[in-house]
Write a structure and sequence with these properties.
The complex is a heterodimer of chains A (89) and B (176). In chain A, 82% of the residues lie in helices and 0% in strands. Chain A is mainly α. Classes of the chains: A mainly alpha (89), B alpha+beta (176). At the A-B interface, helix 1, helix 2, helix 4 and helix 5 of A face helix 1, helix 2, strand 7 and strand 8 of B.
C-alpha cells in the first residue's frame, strides 16, 4: 500500500516537471517572438537615423538651412519676414 | 506482462509530447522569421528627403536660383522639361503608375499668401495622402516631406521656395 502511494507521488512529480518545462519553453519562445515583433517595428530607417546622433542624417537635413544662409550672404534685407515665412510654411 | 504494456504506453505518450514540443518550437521560429523578415525596411521618408535635396539643389545653388528657372524676375522654366533639367526620372519600369510627386512653389516677399509660380510634376493622386499624418493606416500611405528655404535670383529679387515631395512605393516598404 505504501509502495503504491510512493509510485503515484513519483509519477505525479514527473508529470508536473514536464508541464512546467513545457510552460518554460513556451514562455521563452513567446519572449523571442515578441522581440522579433518589436525589432520588425524598428525597420523604419529614418526613425533609426534620426535617433542615431552619430549619423550624417541630421547634417543632410540641414542642406536647406545652408541654402538660406548662403542667400542671406547675397541679400539679407527683410530677414525677419523671411525667417517668419520659412517657419510658417 | 501487463507492466511491460504500461511501460510501452508511457513511452508513446512521451514521444507524442516531444513531437508536440518540436511543433511548438518550429511554430515559434516560424513566427519570429515571419515577423522580422516579413516586414520590409521603410526608406520612403529618407527617399522623399533625398528627392527634396536633389530638387533644392536644382532650383537654387549657392543661394542663387537656377537662371534657367527664373531670369530677371521672370519665370522661364518649361514645366515639361523640369524633371530633365533636374536630372530626375519619375517613370520607373518597376511600377505601372508613377510613385512620386513633387510641387515647388515660389513666393515673392510682397505676396506670401499666393505663390508667384508653381511647378507640379508626378502623380497628383498621392498629394492627398499628405493631409493624413496619423492613424493606423498612415504608414501604408505615401510619405511626404515639405520644407521651405530662401533664395535670390540674378537681379537679387527675394523668394521663399517651398518644396513638397511625395513618395508612395507602399508595396515595397510596408507590410500591406
Amino acid at each position: 500500500m505504501l509502495n503504491f502511494k510512493k509510485n503515484k507521488i513519483a509519477t505525479i512529480g514527473e508529470t508536473l516537471t514536464w508541464i512546467v518545462a513545457t510552460f518554460v519553453i513556451i514562455a521563452i519562445l513567446a519572449v523571442f517572438v515578441i522581440g522579433a515583433m518589436g525589432m520588425s517595428k524598428l525597420k523604419d530607417v529614418s526613425s533609426i537615423l534620426v535617433s542615431d546622433s552619430s549619423s550624417d542624417f541630421k547634417e543632410e537635413s540641414q542642406i536647406l538651412t545652408t541654402k538660406t544662409s548662403l542667400a542671406y550672404e547675397l541679400n539679407n534685407e527683410n530677414k525677419k519676414i523671411i525667417e517668419e515665412a520659412i517657419n510658417e510654411k | 506482462m501487463i507492466k511491460l504494456q504500461n511501460k510501452r504506453g508511457g513511452e508513446e505518450i512521451l514521444a507524442m509530447y516531444w513531437f508536440a514540443i518540436i511543433l511548438i518550437i518550429a511554430g515559434g521560429i516560424y513566427l519570429m522569421i515571419y515577423y522580422f523578415y516579413g516586414t520590409p525596411y521603410d526608406i520612403r521618408d529618407l527617399e522623399s528627403r533625398i528627392l527634396m535635396n536633389q530638387i533644392a539643389d536644382c532650383v537654387s545653388y549657392g543661394g542663387k536660383i537656377n537662371s534657367s528657372l527664373v531670369l530677371g524676375g521672370i519665370f522661364s522654366v518649361n514645366q515639361e522639361n523640369f524633371l530633365d533639367t533636374c536630372h530626375l526620372n519619375f517613370n520607373s519600369s518597376e511600377w505601372d503608375v508613377e510613385q512620386f510627386y513633387t510641387e515647388v512653389n515660389f513666393y515673392e516677399l510682397d505676396n506670401l499668401e499666393n505663390s508667384s509660380f508653381m511647378i507640379k510634376k508626378g502623380n497628383e493622386d498621392w498629394e492627398a495622402n499628405c493631409e493624413i499624418q496619423e492613424g493606423e493606416d498612415y504608414e501604408k500611405l505615401a510619405q511626404c516631406a515639405e520644407k521651405s528655404f530662401y533664395s535670390v535670383d540674378e537681379t537679387n529679387n527675394q523668394y521663399i521656395i517651398k518644396i513638397l515631395t511625395v513618395v508612395r512605393k507602399s508595396e515595397k516598404n510596408v507590410k500591406l
